[in-house]
Specification:
It is built from 5 helices and no strands. It is an all-alpha fold. The protein folds into 2 domains: about 55 residues; about 70 residues, Lysozyme. The chain is elongated.
Length: about 160
């Protein structure tokens, strides 16, 4: 069992990771009825999915905010939403967090691959357009708004 290649909210992603972990534990528990390659894959997948789940839960905990600001940090989620609307809305009035128009900028905040990787984004996804809104904002909040000279200028 693997997670479908779709863009999920963080809560749905956590549910899928938990489901995969339960499945892999079941495969290991009933290993004698499975081909050895299935058992080997389940062991590896259990290890990396458990690590991903830990990461997702820590992000989810950080994202449980009241109002505009996180309880555990000073990220202004509304501000980053407005920057993303300016950067990636294509005139729709809302941010498109999984946008990839082929212009070498990715995600709602239009990261380059270099900026995304150098800022630690590759711990979430290979490119910003494959990361969730929350993950993109967490990475962006570690950068200066001068990286968004037009859209970030008013925040």
């Amino acid at each position: 069992m693997v997670m479908p290649k779709k863009h999920f909210t963080l809560k749905v992603q956590v549910k899928w990771q938990q489901k995969i972990i339960r499945h892999d534990k079941w495969v290991l528990h009933t290993r004698s009825t499975h081909h050895h390659s299935v058992v080997k894959f389940a062991k590896r997948q259990l290890k990396w999915t458990t690590a991903e789940l830990r990461e997702s839960l820590s992000v989810l905990q950080a994202v449980s905010y009241s109002g505009r600001y996180l309880q555990s940090s000073s990220i202004c989620w509304d501000c980053w939403d407005r920057v993303a609307i300016c950067e990636s809305s294509l005139g729709t009035g809302h941010a498109i967090w999984n946008i990839n128009t082929g212009n070498t900028f990715y995600g709602g905040l239009q990261f380059t691959i270099t900026t995304w990787n150098n800022s630690g984004g590759n711990r979430y996804a290979d490119r910003a357009d494959h990361a969730t809104r929350e993950q993109q904002i967490i990475i962006a909040s570690n950068l200066s708004l001068s990286n968004w000279p037009v859209c970030g200028a008013s925040y």
